[in-house]
């Protein structure tokens, strides 16, 4: 008799328990910091894929290949395109980064026309030390890129340490990307 | 006769409406010459998530990246890759996320087996809810004491001698 009483009491707690689970799920699902369209990175801590991209004609900057990213120095690799509006939003930040010379910045020009890209860089400024041209977008697929802009942090041995999807916010640069670069330099 | 033909046409139309064919986004210039290989490419493309419009497969998405991935899938198949090799190639770059059907592994056990688990729990709850009413109360009742027994006997005899049972005293 006593046993059924206690199990009944536990039974009354069940709705409260279910409610708690639902509340937990809502808190997770409605969290404004959660971005449901975020693509998780698969290439972090993997070596940079093999690639060899021609330079962007008209800029005088060299092209970009795998070996350039494993010379002992940390690098930011930025995928951009002249037709990409968020890239334009991100650009002043990259210019500032280049002026401050806190990290080496190189670029992969994604599915762009040479003339458009050159025009874009000459009017907005060119913060990149090297620019590789990926007209087919195939190198971007090898990097696991799903759109522009995306920015990768590469360590001195040519390993991908961080993948940033979308334009970089100044806060993210100061809080995540630059501290990571500095820790790699040490 | 005419009415019969019309009825048949209507039936066929209704049947066709029951089984809609998903319209692919595959463009004519992407289609492979080898129909068997193309069929495999279509089959495989339906398993691969477009990373731009994220709940569409690359077979049905008309995003640029989906087109690039469709071409890539066809290139790898033409080069002699197995279906699994093509999927592995993409998973190495985009992670499991690129697969529309998540693989069964410890991290996805809850996803795959959760519904069965819930069904089991629910079933157990239903069984538990209905069982006590049948067996337990009579079995749990204590045996009659001597006093109760004599009283019951008296009552039964009394009701047997009368036509109707003594409702007042029984209740």
Give keywords.
heterodimer; A: 186 residues; alpha/beta; seven-stranded mixed sheet; 5 helices; elongated; B: 171 residues
Offer a concise description of the structure.
With 186 residues, chain A is of the alpha/beta class.
Report on this model:
The complex is a heterodimer of chains A (186) and B (171). With 186 residues, chain A is an alpha/beta fold. Chain A is 41% helix and 18% strand. A 7-stranded mixed beta sheet of chain A has the order 2-1-5-4-3-6-7. In chain A, helix 2 links the parallel strand 3 and strand 4. The longest helix of chain A has 28 residues. Chain A is elongated and about 80 Å long. The mean pLDDT of chain A is 90. Chain B is mainly α and 171 residues long. Chain B has 7 helices and no strands. In chain B, helix 2 packs across helix 3. At the A-B interface, helix 4 of A face helix 3 and helix 4 of B.
Q: SS-based structural class of chain A? A: alpha/beta
- Helices and strands of chain B, in order, run as HHHHHHH
Low-confidence stretches of chain A: none
Beginning-to-end CA distance, first to last residue of chain B: 77 Å
Helix fraction of chain B, binned, reads: 55-70%
Strand content of chain B: under 5%
What series of H and E elements makes up the topology of chain A?
Answer: HEEEHEHEHEEH
Give the biggest sheet of chain A: 7 strands, mixed
The average pLDDT value of chain A, as a whole number, equals: 90
């Amino acid at each position: 008799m006593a046993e059924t009483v206690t199990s009944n009491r536990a039974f009354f707690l069940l709705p409260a328990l279910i409610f708690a689970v639902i509340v937990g799920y809502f808190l997770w699902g409605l969290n404004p910091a959660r971005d449901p369209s975020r693509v998780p990175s698969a290439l972090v801590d993997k070596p940079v894929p093999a690639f060899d991209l021609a330079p962007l004609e008209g800029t005088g900057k060299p092209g970009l290949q795998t070996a350039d990213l494993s010379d002992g120095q940390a690098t930011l690799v930025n995928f951009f395109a002249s037709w990409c509006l968020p890239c334009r939003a991100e650009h002043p930040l990259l210019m500032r980064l280049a002026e401050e010379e806190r990290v080496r910045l190189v670029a992969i020009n994604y599915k762009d026309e040479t003339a458009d890209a050159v025009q874009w860089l000459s009017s907005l400024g060119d913060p990149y030390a090297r620019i590789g041209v990926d007209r087919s977008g195939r190198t971007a697929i090898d990097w696991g890129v799903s759109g522009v802009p995306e920015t990768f942090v590469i360590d001195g041995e040519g390993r991908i340490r961080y993948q940033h999807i979308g334009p970089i916010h100044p806060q993210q640069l100061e809080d995540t990307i630059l501290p990571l670069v500095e820790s790699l330099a040490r | 006769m005419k009415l019969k033909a019309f009825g048949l046409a209507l039936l066929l139309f209704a049947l066709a409406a029951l089984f809609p064919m998903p319209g692919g986004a595959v463009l004519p210039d992407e289609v492979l010459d080898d129909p068997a290989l193309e069929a495999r490419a279509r089959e495989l493309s339906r398993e691969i998530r477009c990373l731009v419009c994220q709940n569409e497969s690359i077979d049905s998405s008309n995003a640029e990246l989906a087109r690039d991935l469709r071409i890539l899938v066809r290139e790898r198949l033409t080069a002699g890759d197995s279906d699994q090799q093509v999927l592995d190639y993409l998973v190495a770059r985009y992670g499991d996320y690129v697969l529309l059907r998540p693989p069964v592994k410890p991290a996805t056990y809850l996803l795959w087996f959760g519904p069965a688990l819930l069904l089991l729990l629910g079933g157990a709850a239903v069984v538990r809810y209905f069982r006590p009413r049948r067996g337990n109360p009579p079995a749990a009742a204590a045996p009659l004491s001597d006093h109760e027994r004599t009283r019951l006997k008296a009552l039964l005899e009394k009701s047997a001698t009368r036509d109707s049972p003594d409702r007042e005293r029984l209740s």
